[in-house]
Amino acid sequence: MSNVIVVKRSIVVLKLGNTVAKRASRYGQIVQAATGNTWITSLTPTVAQVSADVSAYNASIVPAKNRTPGAVAARNLKDQACKADMEAWARIVQVAADANPSQARTIIESMGMFVKTVTIRTKLPLTIEVQPVPGAVKAIARAGAKGTRVFFEFQYSVDGGKTWLPGGTTTDSSIVITGLPSATYVGFRYRTTNKNVPGPWSQVVTDLVR
Question: What is the distance between the alpha carbons of residues 79 and 21, in angstroms, rounded to a whole number?
Fold first, then answer.
């Protein structure tokens, strides 16, 4: 079994634009998408507040274009306020997307935002190696605490984590566990005890025992 899990994550991208006209358009699109959105029902700042900020920005564009004294600086401040609003919303949308990976793209796009997909590779806490003997595996803990008083305690579960059975305790970071049911998916976990102080249990790793 590979000790690396590969996950695709959908990242929120705003693409607000690099011109006054493009930003005005994007601010309006996002506010419109947020209004009555069924995926994101609670936003801070509120839709009403952001809508007011966008309206103020739009109203500042013409005076700034006409070079009315102080108008450019005023427009820029309103632009910064709108940008901060959008970034605050993007953080909320990202949390919602991460909480619902299967619908992440739909959630992000429903808010008028864009999606960037990134690949995340995470090392699993345990590597499970199937042994030649039926019903046996070798569980190898990822490098952690070391020392003569460090013990590795292994457990396994054959019922989806409802109950855990002892797999053995050792000063080594690996152990061969035997007597497992063949042709069954089994969950494994471990924890270290250092100077008689037990640590937290690791993430569960499930593999098919042969």
Answer: 11
| CA distances for 1 relative to 35, 49, 71, 120, 205, angstroms | 47, 52, 63, 18, 10
Q: What is the pLDDT of residues 172-203, one digit of tens each?
A: 899 999 999 999 999 999 999 988 899 999 98
pLDDT digits (tens, 9 = 90+) for 19-54: 999 999 999 999 999 999 999 999 999 999 999 999
Same-domain check for residues 153 and 105: no
- What CA–CA distance (Å, rounded) separates 37 from 148? 58
Domain with 197, as residue range(s), is: 125-209
pTM of the predicted structure, to 2 decimals: 0.63
Q: Which of 99, 120, 141 is the last residue of a domain?
A: 120
> Could you tell me if 111 and 40 are in contact, meaning their C-beta atoms sit under 8 angstroms apart?
yes
- How far apart CA 54 and CA 59 sit, in angstroms, is 9
- Neighbouring residues of 114: CB distance < 8 A, sequence distance ≥ 6: 12, 13, 14, 15, 108
